[in-house]
Automatic annotation (TrEMBL):
Localisation: Cell inner membrane; Cell membrane
Membrane topology according to the record: Multi-pass membrane protein
NCBIfam families in UniProt: HEQRo_perm_3TM (TIGR01726)
Family: Belongs to the binding-protein-dependent transport system permease family. HisMQ subfamily.
The protein's name in its UniProt record: Amino acid ABC transporter permease
Keyword set includes Cell inner membrane: yes
CDD domains linked: TM_PBP2 (cd06261)
Amino acid sequence: MTEQLDFSALWPHWPELLAGLWVTVQLTVMATVGGLATGIVGAAIRSGRTTWFSRIWGAYVEIIRNTPFVVQLFFIVFGLPNLGLKMTAGEAALLAMVVNLGAYSTEIIRAGIQVTPKGQWEAGRVLGLTRLQTFIRVVLPPALQRIYPALVSQCIIVMLGSSVVSQVSCEELTFAANLIQSRTFLSFEVYLVTTGIYLALSITLRQLMMAAGRKWLGVQA
């Protein structure tokens, strides 16, 4: 006995899917900006002299990289309120994504900085630049150029991982798909369409980020 697929029954639910997609896009954009900024700061700290602050940052990186994202999310949602830090599901989801991407991007960017010739640091000092100016103007751009594809891939992984935040009632794309499935019982149709949306979103995000990298960093295609 075969079951006939009925995609037409999903048409009335497209506004819910699009609303969920919009939340996913917003989370992805804000988490990418926040996570990469965190990663750049962390890479600068971890690439300098070993201090108590660099050790603390290193501990943060190891904790995040060696624990599941869903556990990090649950800790923020259910653990931080015990410390008096209450936030909405969307705010908790965004914080979890920024913290996660920040840890991974720290190590990715640090890897690009470590292969930077020491002569670039010396050239900055000769030109009268401070260490911070040398880092931002001389060292960081070529470092980002080297590791940019890996950085883009990590941003996409975090975007796809955003589907987990539906577990804390953040109304993103997967939350909308689960809700529609519970109403229509069209599991195959709902999740096939959702898979296609995530695939299109991943490809679009990769193309946009690579185009930005080619324009601003001179990344090769």
